[in-house]
Amino acid sequence: MSRIGKTKIQVPNGVNIDLKGNHIKVTGPKGALEMDVHPGILVKVEDGALEVANQQPELRAMKALHGTMRSLINNMVIGVSSGYSKSMQIFGTGYSIKEQGGKLILGIGYCHTVEMPLPKGITVEIKTPATRGNDVPAEFSISGIDKQLLGQFAAEVRSKRPPEPYKGKGIRYADEHVRRKVGKAFGA
């Protein structure tokens, strides 16, 4: 039995859960999310808590799916009640970010700006729109209720200009540590 899978999910006030066969819909103050649960996994609502049970504990694949399904449902409950957010920074002289017409526009050192359409349910809050030298980065945060969609979009934004190891220029997560390398050393 999965240690993660057997722990119950506490449902906060204001969150409603609808179970119809293998389909679960979680509705809360921030929005609604829905998902199909694997047929070998049973979800029950008891006393304001969700319980995820494995119907075939002898199969190795079902043991893995037990914990996975519980984590996905827990992420849905947290997402509709409080939401998720990722803080990001852009380092590099002259780099900038702005949101315009449902698109994220990045000026990150290419000869053109990079435009990325915002997925439905994702919002961007820009704290510092442009870098000031190499010391003050441009800062922004991406937020939404779907943890998977949020992480995927943040990874796509970072992939447009990942941080380089010599000067540290590029897009990074706020809590990310970039290992720096020493440049060429000239002989005397």
Structure description:
The structure is a single chain. This protein is α+β, with helices and mostly antiparallel strands and 188 residues long. The protein folds into 2 domains: 79 residues, Ribosomal protein L6 (Outer Surface Protein A, domain 3); 90 residues, Ribosomal protein L6 (Outer Surface Protein A, domain 3, Alpha-Beta Complex), CATH 3.90.930. The chain is 21% helix and 37% strand. It contains 3 helices and 13 strands, in the order αββββββαββββββαβ. It is elongated, with a radius of gyration of 21 Å.
Main sheet summary:
4 strands, antiparallel
Indicate the mean pLDDT. Answer: 91
CATH class of the largest domain: Alpha Beta
Name given to the CATH homologous superfamily of the largest domain: Ribosomal protein L6
Helix and strand run: HEEEEEEHEEEEEEHE
